[in-house]
Amino acid sequence: AIIRRLDYRPPDWLVPDIALDFDLDASATQVHAVLSIVRNGTHDRPLRLEGDGLLPVEVKVDGRTLGPEEWALDGGTLVVPLNGQSHQVETRVEVAPDSNSKLMGLYASGGLLCTQCEAEGFRRITFFPDRPDVLSRYTVRMEADKSRYPVLLANGDPVEKGDLPGGRHWARWTDPFPKPCYLFALVAGDLACNADRFVTMSGREVALGIWVREADLPRTAHAMKALKDSMAWDERVYGREYDLDVFNIVAVADFNFGAMENKGLNIFNSRYILADPETATDLDYDGVEGVVAHEYFHNWSGNRVTCRDWFQLSLKEGFTVFRDQSFSADMGSHAVKRIEDVRILRAAQFQEDSGPLAHPVRPESYMEISNFYTATIYNKGAELIRMMALMLGWERFRASTDLYFESHDGQAATCEDFVRAMEEGGGIDLSQFRLWYEQAGTPHVRAMLSHDPATGTAELLLEQAVPPTPGQPDKKPMAIPMRVALFDPASGRHQGDQLLMLTQAKQSFRFEGFSSAPILSINRGFSAPVIVETNRSQADLAFLSAHDDDPFARYEAMQQLMVNVLIGRIGGQAVDEDAVIAAIRDTATDPQLDPAFVAETIRLPSEAYLGDQMPVVDPDAIHAARDALQQRIGEALEPLWRDIHAGTKANAFSLSPAAKGARKLRNIALHYLVASGAQDGPQIAFAQFHEADNMTERQAALATLANGASDEREAALDIFYNRYRDDALTLDKWFQTQAFAFHPNTVQLVADLREHKDFTLANPNRVRSLFGAFAGNQWAFHHRSGEGYRLVADCIIALDKINPQTAARLVPPLGRWRRFDEARAAMMRAALQRVLAEPGLSRDVTEQASKSLE
Ligand code: ARG
Ligand code: ZN
């Protein structure tokens, strides 16, 4: 069945209060629910309570047990005809957490019992109107064996607890804030707590707890710091204060995605909580900080103001991603954070937007909502908020978010509500801007700068086009905010950054006072999520790569310089590589620059990004060209790489931005040094691997070695495995590094690793480490034999029976067949068809695979 946005209808029945009673047990948990329900408006429709895999043991209305003829099951939904305006409805069900391999609803993970309800997992716990516009006050009582489950946590504040005969105990929690059921959570288990406190801006004390297995306590410090920094940041930047007396976070090993913002009880994939220098890279540390912040920020953007229906998902996700990006930028470097975020957007969202699964930020329809937790909803959604913030300016944007939070507090809102608050608070008209929520596809902007020396006038002609996407053949012109600057090549300066609003298909802008032709810096700061094509020469790009004062534009100029060389090479043209090498040398030796920025800038664009620049992706040609350029850069600047590598070796580990930047630069220097083919390359990499006192350097050395055959490669992989075989999160890196390597045998290696005793389909992190990484390895995944497609399709088929949500995430790489040559495309389609032919296929995978073939 297809669910459509325009079919939205308010709920027939409201549930102002719910009391839940759990008798917890890994194989048989009893759930007793008492719902106070109220008819919403005048209608004579029965009460419908969604259930997924539930059988009612008992149904009561106003204290009376109903006979089997007084209710019905329609699919999984419990249907109860009712006469009055309000009733008390009770149900009892039994669920089996330890056989819940989908990890939705109540499930077992490493001896713990925990929940995941977003988007539609609550219906796997109890019968309920499982939709985000039904908000209820929750009281939760839990009872369990005290030795197995000494800690009992739920949303809100703890109110009472006690011991029971037979080694059992109980606890009651209440959450005073009405919330949709997707924010419900409970956790039971043997957990240790990193306890801390935070005093809010109005002086209230909040008890903070990060709950993990005892042995993991030493790895929770960074998450706790991130939590306190986030709480202070949301007060300072958005005026948002925390609202309960406790805030708990629990880390679990088996989790379908990053983390979940359940009210007062966030549940996390342990990879976004646990970090220490021995096992976490700097990227992992940043991931912890960013995800802790993201989930915390949801308390306002998501929980206090929630979504009316799932078509509005980007209302909370886009805004919250924008908020966590801004936070991380404030905690570290704005320039580097922007570069990283754009790289992610291009790698994940642009690909989605140009393929069969393209959808608007506010989708029109879906089969399975889990498939819509996408880069478009999250990352493009964040770009929409960023564009509005740019157009309004910070102060008016902040006034508008205040207005938004005040006028929708306690409500289930829509994207339209948000845009309207921006209009009212910001005093601008966003009618055309709304198209960003409606139209899928990445806009292309062609920018042609011309110059008339006679009049000293420069003219910038901008043309935009939004490509057709499934269900949207014709597009209207969008409102695109373009930050530009025109550089005078003689002075190396510009006369100010301007914000141009491109609102028509074709529009030109004039600039006076240029005796000689200026150089165009465009989409500065990546002001709009578009693809820009310009008529700039390699010389212009080299100039910008050395002089642009906008760090993103400077990075972009360098990347474009590299892209042009590589695409030229692939097309058999001779493009001057020396300009690239010179630009890299100048950047790498500029003492004014932040080493982290240098490291980002001198890195070659990924193979996938190069593929995106070609009409038909040729994975082998891309790999060969990129590899060759890498080697040339390595050789031509070999002494520099040796210098940087030696000069960035730290005496003691630190997480300061300077230390992190030095490690990033050190790793890229090592990479070029090894790429140069220098005789001692593998030894230097192995020495770094061996001597490193942190995972950032150790893993980078391992990854560099993993690209080619050498004794050092085998030795490093062995040592790594034996050292971390009992640490799941770190062992994931061992799988991931091999699956992501540019090794000629990667396909076979992945096939072998699938049979490794430490590989399991039951743990989503492990699956992503092997198959997620492999599917992102363009050269290997698209091996001309088609073996890569077979491996991934096999994995999807096997995993679908265990965890369809995670299986569905592996489908999109196969769906990109239109971008490849006919031979590959046919094999990719065949793989998708084989998946679709599987009997009993989940709705999740069916939707992704069938849309991919359309
Ligand atoms: N809301 C969670 C987060 O911040 C993610 C929930 C994902 N749910 C899903 N079914 N994929 O970001
Ligand atoms: Zn989120």
UniProtKB/TrEMBL annotation:
Species per Swiss-Prot/TrEMBL record: Sphingobium baderi
Any one Gene Ontology BP term: proteolysis
The protein, known as: Aminopeptidase N
Aminopeptidase N-like N-terminal domain location: 84-183
Keywords annotated in UniProt: Aminopeptidase, Hydrolase, Metal-binding, Metalloprotease, Protease, Zinc
Role description: Aminopeptidase N is involved in the degradation of intracellular peptides generated by protein breakdown during normal growth as well as in response to nutrient starvation.
Peptidase M1 alanyl aminopeptidase C-terminal domain boundaries: 539-854
InterPro entries membership: Aminopeptidase_N-like_N (IPR045357), Aminopeptidase_N-like_N_sf (IPR042097), PepN_Ig-like_sf (IPR038438), Peptidase_M1 (IPR001930), Peptidase_M1_dom (IPR014782), Peptidase_M1_pepN (IPR012779), Peptidase_M1_pepN_C (IPR024601), Peptidase_M1_pepN_C_sf (IPR037144)
Annotated Peptidase M1 alanyl aminopeptidase Ig-like fold domain residues: 441-534
Coiled coil: none
UniProt KW Hydrolase keyword: yes
EC number: 3.4.11.2
Protein family (similarity comment): Belongs to the peptidase M1 family.
Domain Peptidase M1 membrane alanine aminopeptidase: 223-433
Broad EC category: hydrolase
Catalytic activity: Release of an N-terminal amino acid, Xaa-|-Yaa- from a peptide, amide or arylamide. Xaa is preferably Ala, but may be most amino acids including Pro (slow action). When a terminal hydrophobic residue is followed by a prolyl residue, the two may be released as an intact Xaa-Pro dipeptide
Gene Ontology molecular function: any one: metallopeptidase activity
Cofactor: Zn(2+)
Annotated Pfam families: DUF3458, DUF3458_C, Peptidase_M1, Peptidase_M1_N
Protease listed as a keyword: yes
